[in-house]
Amino acid sequence: MKKPTLKSILGSVSSFLLFFLTVGFIVSCCMMLFVSILADTMDLTITPDNVGTAAKVTFWNVVLITFLFKMADYIRRRIMVDRPTKIITEATEKIMSGDFSVRMEPMRSSGMEGFNQIAMAINQMAEELGGVETLRTDFIANVSHEMKTPLAVMNNYGTLLQTPDLTEEKRIEYAKGVTDASRRLSEMMTNILKLNRLENQQIFPEVTTFDLGEQLCECLLQFENVWEKKNIEIETDIAENIQVEADAELLCLVWNNLFSNAFKFTAEGGTVSLQLTATEHHAIIRLQDTGCGMTAEVGAHIFEKFYQGDTSHSVQGNGLGLALVKRVIDILQGEISVESAIGVGTTFTVKIRRS
Questions:
Q1: Is the pTM value of this prediction over 0.85?
Q2: Which CATH superfamily is 208-353 part of?
Q3: Contacts of 227 (CB under 8 A, 6+ apart)
């Protein structure tokens, strides 16, 4: 407990004097009115001695009443104000020091409803801050881990490029390795910046009305070289004239990531199917591939940042694409779901509100 300072003592004395004067004035006025009415009614004579005696008794009564009221107010403040204030202050100081496990118990005394609301808000704040801190720690750890791989590749190939009497074929191979690793690092940084802007609401949707079928076809054709190289069969069933009101650029980000994943995980000679249908209020897009598929456990985490179902990293990626997709769909107030089975393939279903 803090020791009382001169300032706090003077404050208490001035508060007591102010309260004393207020009570004294009120009591004196009431007594004067009472005596005056009593004297007129009963035809009494008021003498200086009577007035002096009454004044002395009234003065000490006022002092006693003031003291009793101040003591009662002091006890009330200690119990109803100072104690909960101390509990709240200690909790907030722990939170400021980084302890987000702090939780305040409800105060069961009568009249504590306001402090209980503050306690509930502090508990919720601590829980939210704890979650943010966990995400921040995981994010830093994941970024550090993901950066190590391309940097190590660039370092190794850079060292090999310094080998004397290096053949032209090897020089091109090592240079390509450096370029591929730097491109992968650049893509990861770009996706991190995009995801950060999306999560901090720094990207606001620019809503326009456009034909969704045309957009899907345009995005799909960007991967023509990929499916031709892997001899992947493309099946499409796209309904015509389906108009949507959304941000076209953000939706392109969604389709490009989903198409990229579909072609990445589909083996040579496989099939990728795209279907677009519509209900009265939604456009429904289904993208199905005959890739390796995934377990239900992996499917439950694929929209998390840096999560990769392929722990061997045999397929290049940084686990940010689907996190971007999920955030965009949430911003556009749409829905996305996934169904998958090992050795069968994966189907993503996206629902977008129509115009």
A1: no
A2: Histidine kinase-like ATPase, C-terminal domain (3.30.565.10)
A3: 234, 263, 272
